[in-house]
Amino acid sequence: MEEEEQLRSLMFLVTYMLLKRMRDINDANIQRRNEIQRRIRHRQYFFQRQRRMLMMMIAGGIRSNARIRTRPWTTTPSTDWWERVVMTEFQPSDWLDKFRMNRETFFYLCDKLRPRLARQNTSFRLALPVEKRVAVALWRLASNIEYRTISALFGVGKSTVCRCVRDMCHAIVALLSSIYLRSPGEQELEDSAQLFLSHWGFPHCVAAIATLHTAIITPSNNASDYANPAGWLSVMSQVAVSGQGHFWDVCASFPGGTDPAEILQNSSLWATAAEGGLSPAPPPTFMGKSLRYVLLGEACYPLQSWLMKAYPEEQGRTASRTALTEQQQLFNGRLARALRVSQEALLRLRARWQCLSKRNDCGLDVVPTMILACCILHNMCESHGDAFKAEWQVEVAEAESPQPSHKQLLSTSMNQSNAEEVRQLFCDYFEEQNKLNN
C-alpha cells in the first residue's frame, strides 16, 4: 500500500512538472513571436521612412528640372484653357469682356500686386502664378458668378477662388490706394472745377457726393439695420466723385439703414472740406468774393458753406409743395444736372464690376474691402483709358435692384449759418448767365 502511495505521488509530481514545462515553452514561443512581429513592424516603419525621404529627394530633383513640372491644384484641361486659350488666344475684346480691362492694364496690375500676391513653391505644390490669381479674382468681381463655376473654369478649388478674391482686394487697397484713391492736389482741383463748369455747367465746384448701396445676403447679426429705404438688405458707401468721374474719397461698410448725413459728418471728408482742404490757399474768387471750392450733394445732406444742395420743395407732411422762386428753380436744375457726374460714375462702376450690382454673397468682413478695391480699379481703368462698353450698363439696368433714394433733410438745425449766403451767390451767377444767354 505504501509503495502504491509513493508511486501515485511520483506520477503526480512528474505530470505537474511536464505540464509546467509545456506552459513555459508556450509562453516563450508567444514572447518570441511578439518580438519578431515588433521587429518586423519597426523595420517596415524604417523602410517606409527611408522611402518617403527618397521620394522627396527625387521630387526635389525633378522639380529642379525645368522641363518636367507637376500641375497641382489644377486639372490638365483647365490649365490648358488658362495657359493656351487665355494667355495666347484671347483677343483684345476678350480681355475687356472677361477682365474689364485691356491686356496691358492687366499685367500692369499684376506687377503692382506681385509683392503681396506672390507665393513660394513647396515640396508638394507649385504656387499659383500671380497672373492666374489676379485673373480668378477679376473674373469674380466682373461677373459675380458662383465660386464653383470659376473653380471649374480655372481648375482650382472653391476655397482657392475665395482666397484669391480676398487676397487681391486687400492687396489693391494696401498698394494702390496711395496712387488711385487719394486727396487731390491743387492742379487736380482746378482741373475738376474746370470740367464741372465746361461739362456740367456748374462753376466753382470740384466734386459731388453720392451714396452706393450694395446688396448682401442676410447677415447673422442685426439684419434689420441693413434694410435700406427700398426695403432690401445692403451695405452703404459714401463716395466723392471728381469732374473726371474718378472717386476721390470712399467710405464703405455702413449698414444700409444708416442716415447718409450721419455718415458724412463722421467721415474724414467732412473734416477735410470744413478745414478748406479741398480748395487752394488763398481761396479763388467767385462773384467778386473770395470763396473756397464747393462740393455738391443730394437732398439728404445738410447745407454747408462748402456743400451745396437743392432748395427743398417739400416743407412738411401737410403742405404738398412750396412755390420756389425762378432763381431757386434754376439753381435746382443746374445742381441736378451737375449731380449726374456722380450718378454716371456709380453706374459705370457697377456695370464694370457687377459684384456691386448683384447680390454679393461674400461675408461682411470682405464686402467693404471689395467695394474699395472696385473703386480703385475703376479709377485705374479710367486713368489708363480702357474702353467701357455700353452693353454693360444695359446688363446692370436689367439685373439690379434700383438704387434707393433717401429722404431729403428738411431740418435746418444742421445747416451752417453762412451757407445760405453762399448758395445765393450761385443763384445770382446762374441768373446772370441765363440773362446773357437769352
TrEMBL record:
Alphabetically ordered keywords of this record: Hydrolase, Metal-binding, Nuclease, Nucleus
Q: Where is the DDE Tnp4 domain?
A: 211-379
Listed InterPro entries: HARBI1-like (IPR045249), HARBI1_dom (IPR027806)
The entry's localization annotation reads:
Nucleus
Report one GO cellular component.
Answer: nucleus
Q: Which domain of life is it from?
A: Eukaryota
Q: List the cofactors.
A: a divalent metal cation
Q: What is its main location?
A: nucleus
Residues passing through the membrane, by range: none
Q: Spell out the molecular function terms from Gene Ontology.
A: hydrolase activity; metal ion binding; nuclease activity
Name the family: Belongs to the HARBI1 family.
The name of this protein is: Putative nuclease HARBI1
Q: Which organism is it from?
A: Oreochromis niloticus (Nile tilapia)
Task: Provide the organism lineage as a comma list.
Answer: Eukaryota, Metazoa, Chordata, Craniata, Vertebrata
